[in-house]
Amino acid sequence: MLEALIARAPLGLSDLATELKIPKSSLYRVCAVLLERGWLLRNSDGRYVLGIRAFGLTAQSAEYPIVRAFRGIAADLLTRHNETVCVAVLDSDESTFIAIEETTHPVRLVTHVGSRTPAFASASGRVILADRSPGVVTAQFAGRQLVTPTGRRLRDVNELLEILRQVRSAGYAENRDETAVGLHAISVPVRNAGGSVLAALTMCVPTSRITPARRQALIADLMEAGSRFSESVAPLAAWNATRAGAAELVAPAEPS
To answer: From first to last of its 256 residues, what are the pLDDT tens digits of the chain?
Structure first.
């Protein structure tokens, strides 16, 4: 199924059933599982496309609407600041880069499309988690050891909830030396017309190039860019459902 979608997405259930020679009722159940696990998404017309977990398997990934919109936004930020710009979405409890435009500076974050970091630790993940209710976040992270990639240990889920409260209040997230030593990351939310956070627009800057004045300029320009980005992707559905909620993407009744 994934090979068929890599070659010819988007495809409807009937198209897939014909292509794979599998009964629609059986194929529907397979699609439901793949939707829940993030391998598939459904367009507004009901046809299937590759989901977040399959991102990068096909050249079509670069043509996803959110990635096309990102290119123009990133070009403007690069012109102003010449720092790496990324867009990330959530895959369960990880923040995943789906597009990157790199700085020309030799000293920079070395990363790639598909790179993952713990959502609770990264600026991009925190921006998206901040859009969720405290109850949902608590259910996802309570009782777990919350240790960032650089070894910072959060006290418990209550510390994470307080961080997310501050993110919601400020309208952006930032961290320093939490996902990589020497990295200062700043992220803003990208929202659709319904106000749901689709993704995080992030700038990754070596701490050696951050000053108080430059930090303020980066935040201001990133927030403005996030607003423009949100306007350009307003019609899109939310990408970042929790595991439990992902099944809502599936139609409620099987086709006859």
So the answer is: 888 887 777 889 999 999 899 999 889 988 888 887 777 878 778 888 777 667 655 555 666 778 889 999 999 999 999 999 999 998 878 898 989 999 999 988 888 887 889 999 999 999 999 999 999 999 999 999 999 999 999 999 999 999 999 999 999 999 999 999 999 999 999 998 889 898 999 999 999 999 999 999 999 999 999 999 999 988 876 654 434 333 332 333 344 3
pTM of whole model > 0.85? no
Give the count of alpha carbons within 13 A of 33, CB side only.
5
Q: CB of 50 within 8 A of CB of 60?
A: yes
Q: Which CATH superfamily is domain 64-232 in?
A: GAF domain (3.30.450.40)
Among 172, 166, 198, residue whose Cα is nearest residue 185:
172
C-alpha 95/C-alpha 126 separation (Å) is 9
Is the dihedral angle over the CA atoms 109, 146, 171, 240 positive or is it negative? positive
Residue extent(s) of CATH 3.30.450.40 domains in the chain: 64-232
Give the whole-angstrom CA distance, residue 78 versus residue 107: 15
Q: Among 36, 72, 88, which residue's Cα sits nearest to residue 197?
A: 88
| Level-2 CATH architecture, domain 2-55 | Orthogonal Bundle (1.10)
